[in-house]
């Protein structure tokens, strides 16, 4: 019995692959539906087949490739969710309230008081990045089948901002924007720490994950 599989794409184009390659994602439409690629662009399917041959399913694309949205949508349609994740840019926003408190022995020395680090983004990505450090108690919840659900109600179990930044950097995220502002209703000469209260937001982006040539 032949190990070669023919995938017929749009405009009569035919791609050749193997059963072992398709079996890497056994429940995808590539494995279960012979006509799943009949309306697909052969170039998009070829990129996905190449990714399936790799252990990490990372993508290798031409230098001038910029059709990431189409690649991600096609991967989702075919049930190749890992490839769809790699083809999609991901954004995570980290926000916190911070107060600067003067030292008791030396008022010229200030300490940062941070109460909570809020995390906003796609649920599946936030879980993958922060793991057990993520507190989901305030999230309204949803089903595990909601692949694209977003939330703004996660927060971290720790209050170390630099630790959160290191975690994001280790997962391929890079800082793209940040801003800080103070509440306008506070009195200018308050004697409490709230005089120095400010809110900060940090926006991190992970580009589509591509394997180097």
TrEMBL record:
Keyword entries, A-Z: Cell membrane, Membrane
Subcellular location: Cell membrane
Taxonomy, superkingdom: Eukaryota
InterPro entries: H1_KCTD8_12_16
Annotated ranges, domain KCTD8/12/16 H1: 92-206
Main location: membrane
Name by which UniProt lists this protein: KCTD8/12/16 H1 domain-containing protein
Source species of the chain: Ancylostoma duodenale
């Amino acid at each position: 019995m032949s190990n070669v599989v023919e995938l017929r794409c749009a405009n009569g184009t035919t791609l050749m692959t193997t059963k072992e390659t398709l079996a890497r994602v056994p429940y995808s439409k590539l494995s279960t539906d012979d006509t799943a690629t009949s309306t697909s662009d052969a170039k998009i399917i070829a990129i996905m087949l190449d990714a399936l041959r790799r252990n990490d399913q990372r993508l290798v694309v031409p230098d001038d490739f910029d059709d990431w949205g189409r690649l991600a949508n096609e991967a989702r349609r075919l049930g190749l969710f890992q490839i769809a994740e790699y083809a999609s840019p991901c954004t995570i926003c980290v926000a916190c309230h911070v107060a600067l408190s003067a030292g008791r022995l030396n008022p010229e020395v200030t300490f940062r008081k941070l109460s909570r680090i809020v995390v906003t983004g796609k649920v599946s990505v936030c879980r993958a990045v922060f793991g057990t450090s993520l507190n989901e108690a305030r999230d309204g919840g949803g089903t595990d089948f909601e692949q694209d659900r977003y939330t703004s109600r996660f927060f971290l179990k720790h209050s170390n901002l630099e630790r959160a930044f290191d975690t994001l950097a280790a997962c391929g995220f890079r800082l793209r924007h940040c801003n800080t502002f103070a509440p306008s209703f506070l009195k200018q000469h308050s004697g409490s720490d709230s005089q120095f209260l400010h809110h900060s937001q940090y926006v991190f982006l992970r580009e589509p994950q591509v394997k180097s040539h």
